[in-house]
From TrEMBL:
Name assigned to this protein: NADPH2:quinone reductase
Domain Enoyl reductase (ER): 7-320
Source organism, top-level taxon: Bacteria
Name of one Pfam family that matches: ADH_zinc_N
UniProt enzyme class: oxidoreductase
EC number per UniProt: 1.6.5.5
Record organism: Bradyrhizobium japonicum
Listed GO MF terms: quinone reductase (NADPH) activity
Length: 322
């Protein structure tokens, strides 16, 4: 089968053996894939958790059809339309754990379905399970113009947030955030953004920050969070190391929690997918929760898709079809 593989000469489409499902695995005939920021690093040979390096089939998000079941796989049957996340997505066939997938709603095509699994699982966990958002609270999403950021704002709005603030350093994308749930859009590269947040919250700060940026905004986040508020760190777009005001953290008594899928067990991931199904799946099926597709590429043009992502001018998801 054809797959996008990182090798000695970089990432390229290659012929590899079709995988065989074992245990609780499902073999998926992939029809479309969503690109994610982590894919850009793995495409250059960087590890993502335990995955990466020479011989790695890249990609982590897909939609397609069940082609074959492992002996212990349950909940789906051959021919079902599904979407999910996991490794080796950029291929004609991939393997998925039976608990790490969703049924693709009948009112979505494969391109649309491929935009959702990572964003839904990541941001329901960050905003609801870990972030504990409650009706009437104020939330700030750092890095809101990414696919997962747009989903985070929509989930916050769905769960009754009274004030949703999104950040983006790009003026055009910032101007579009209100379409996806933001009441206020701020530029996190402008030091005055904290003042804007405080003004919007009567000087108190937000109840919750979901931070995909970290780095240079880490201490600014503390100043923008209310006393006994919460910060959930889900990313490092702004860098992995920075100054951190420990005194301000203590003074404001902020709960600061880091989350990632890289160190989660399959049992933990299954639980996250279960929570999405139980809590917000009706909003997915009704298309209340959805993501814009910026551009669709054929699999043969996957390098062009990555060039488009690395140009950092897109809003929403970039999709590759097979």
């Amino acid at each position: 089968m054809k797959a996008y593989v990182y090798g000695p000469d970089g990432a390229q489409i290659s012929d590899v053996a079709q995988p065989k499902p074992k245990g609780t695995q499902v073999l998926v005939r992939v029809r479309a894939c969503g690109l994610n920021r982590a894919d850009t690093g793995m495409r250059k040979g960087h590890a993502h958790g335990a995955a990466g390096g020479a011989g790695t089939v890249l990609g982590m998000e897909w939609a397609g059809e069940v082609a074959e079941l492992g002996p212990d796989a349950k909940g789906v049957k051959v021919g079902d339309r599904i979407m999910g996340s996991g490794g080796a997505a950029f291929a004609e066939y991939t393997l998925a754990d039976h608990g790490r997938l969703f049924r693709a709603p009948s009112n979505m095509n494969f391109e649309e379905a491929a935009t959702l699994p990572v964003a839904l699982a990541t941001m329901h966990n960050a905003v609801v399970t870990v972030g504990g958002i409650q009706p009437g609270q104020a939330v700030l999403i750092q890095g809101a113009s990414s696919g997962v950021g747009l989903m985070a704002m929509q989930i916050a709005r769905l769960k009754g947030a009274k004030l949703v603030i999104g950040s983006s350093t790009d003026a055009y994308r910032r101007s579009r955030l209100k379409e996806y749930g933001a009441d206020l859009a701020v530029d996190s590269s402008d030091p005055k953004w904290v003042d804007e947040v405080l003004k919007a919250t009567n000087g108190e700060g937000v109840d919750l920050i979901v931070d995909q940026v970290s780095g240079k905004v880490a201490s600014q986040n503390l100043a923008a969070t209310k006393v006994k508020g919460r910060i959930v760190n889900v990313g490092r777009l702004g860098g992995t190391h920075a100054d951190f005001n420990f005194d301000l953290h203590a003074a404001r008594r902020i709960d600061y929690v880091g989350v990632t899928f890289r160190t989660r067990t399959i049992e933990e991931v299954r639980e996250i997918f279960d929570e999405v199904r139980k809590d917000i799946w009706g909003a997915v099926e009704s298309r209340k929760l959805q993501l814009p597709i910026d551009k669709v590429y054929a699999f043969a043009d996957i390098d062009k898709a990555f060039a488009h992502m690395e140009a950092n001018k897109h809003l929403g998801k970039i999709v590759v079809t097979l």
